[in-house]
Amino acid sequence: MIQWYPGHMVKAKKQIIENLKLVDIAFELVDARIPLSSQNPMINEILNNKPKLVLMTKADMADSKVTKKWQIHFRKEGYETLLVDSISGLNINKIVSSAKEVLKDKLARDAAKGMKMRPIRAMVIGIPNVGKSTLINKLVNKKVTNVGDRPGVTKAQQWIRINKDLQLLDTPGVLWPKFDDPVQGYHLAITGAIRDEIVHKDDLIFYLFDFLKKHYPSEFRERYNINMEDSNLAILEAIALSRGFYKDKKYDYETTYEVILNDFRNLRIARITLDRLDYE
Q1: How many domains does the chain have?
Q2: Helix (H) and strand (E) counts for the chain?
């Protein structure tokens, strides 16, 4: 069972609760490749009915057909969603208008009271490595927060003025103490939300192989030129051999694991969504 709950996350959770009264809305970022696995189950409890907009990040990396199904799912649960990608800029300019749509009743009440229009104050919340800092930097067109390709880069909360319509409160990524479903842990690890060093990569890669055989067989076969009927170990060794990771009659499994994970994370296999709805 994968567990990762650094001490700074306990502090971050407390800070989020304390600062909720300062914001109008929460932007919950989820990875479009793992929309459910990247949702912290404690978030809704923490937010305590605070209005929320779900921003599905890294949308350009996810399977668009599956993403549409997840958007329908979230709307049925009562949450508006917006697909975004901070690299391509997809829908970045629609975040303010989407937030105003979620807050339209509150904004109408404020206007009826004669209150002066002020910037929307939003809290950015989500698990590590979901793209919070990258999104904020894209919004302001400069580096105002630290960005890294590993989880846990943001350690403190900070206010950032985006423009006259929006102010953001950035927060560190917060995971939860224990993953009850091992599949959720696998999905978080494959996408890089959990540090690679704490994961058993053999189990992780064999899980990924089984998933690709089921959902993306042609893409899997084409990428690695493999026999899909082979065992997972035989497939792993075939990939290692083709990449030159075989020396002195020994396979370099660790390097092969890294190559396969990098292939997934850099779109060399396909646009893949790991989380699937029950009926898929």
Answers
A1: 2
A2: 11, 8
Lowest mean pLDDT across 49-58, 103-112, 149-158, 239-248: 149-158
Domain enclosing residue 251, as ranges = 200-265
Reduced to 3 states (helix: H, G, I; strand: E, B; else coil), residue 72 is helix
Q: Is 270 within 8 Å of 216 (Cβ atoms)?
A: yes
Residue 209 CA to residue 63 CA, distance in Å, equals 17
Query: Do 61 and 160 form a contact (C-beta atoms < 8 A)?
Result: no
Strand partners, 29: 55, 126
**Contact predicate 184/37, CB 8 Å:** yes
pTM for the full predicted model: 0.88
Identify the helix (H) or strand (E) that includes residue 224.
helix 217-224
* DSSP for residue 115: P
Residue 243 is part of a domain; what is its CATH number?
A: 1.10.1580.10
Domain boundary among the residues 127, 154, 170 is at 170
Same domain, 49 and 145: yes
Burial class of residue 137 in the structure, from the number of CB atoms within 10 Å of its CB (0-12 exposed, 13-18 middle, 19+ buried) = middle
Quote the longest CA-to-CA distance of the chain: 79
Q: Are residues 156 and 213 in the same domain?
A: no
pLDDT single digits (tens) 47-90: 888 999 999 999 999 999 999 999 999 999 999 999 999 889 99
Q: At 263, is the pLDDT very low, low, confident or very high (cuts 50, 70, 90)?
A: very high
Yes or no: say if 29 and 125 are a contact pair by the CB < 8 Å rule.
Answer: yes
What CA–CA distance (Å, rounded) separates 272 from 155?
Answer: 29
Residues 202-235 have pLDDT tens digits of 999 999 999 999 999 999 999 999 999 999 999 9
Domain presence at residue 272: no
